[in-house]
Amino acid sequence: MSNKAELLEAIAGKNRGLLASETDKVKVLSILEQLEDHNPTPKPLEAKELLDGDWRLLYTSSREILNIGRFPLFQLGQIYQCIRSQEAKIYNIAEIVGLPLLDSIVSVAATIEPVSDRRVNVKFQRSIVGLQRILNYSSPANLIERLETGKKFPPLDFSLENRDRQGWLEITYLDEDLRVGRGNQGNVFVLAKG
User: Which fold has domain 3-193?
Assistant: First the structure.
């Protein structure tokens, strides 16, 4: 079995890491390290045709993200990280599902600045929280297109530019449909394209 297949099997049924035990987490990290050693794209920031697009989160160790799924009456739907390297932007979009008509979106927009062949500095600029129906949400691409117009979205649309919200993201594995990244807080992210 390939490292990629082994990783996908290890994270299956873990609800993006929410249901991962400590043993599961250690196993996933071990497999990730083996996969990263065989990265087919050693300079991922130069492979824009592979890097750009809407990536769906399969697994993370980020408590900040996983805690969104711990609210009573709500659960975490799909989570996306959308990269637009031409514009030097990245968008994180989390779908929250729950009671009828209360499905929501939590989105953060940031700029990215390459600092090596695999790492970008991330500076968060804007956060939007709102009901999907009020935001007229249908897909990540649709939301991003509307965000780029500069339009404000009710009820919660606020700037993060004057706050010290920044970090970095390193892409440690990239192929046509799988991306692995590591963040400045020690978190890992496994994402699938599409």
Answer: Lipocalin (2.40.128)
What are the tens digits of pLDDT across the range 61-99?
A: 998 887 776 666 678 889 999 999 999 999 999 998 877
Closest among 92, 93, 87, 94 to 112, alpha carbons compared = 87
**Crossing angle of helices 22-36 and 3-11, rounded to 10°:** 160
pTM (2 decimals)? 0.90
Nearest of 193, 191, 82 to residue 141 by alpha carbon: 82
Domain extent listing, the chain:
3-193
Cα 16 to Cα 112, 119, 146, 175, distances in angstroms: 24, 23, 28, 20
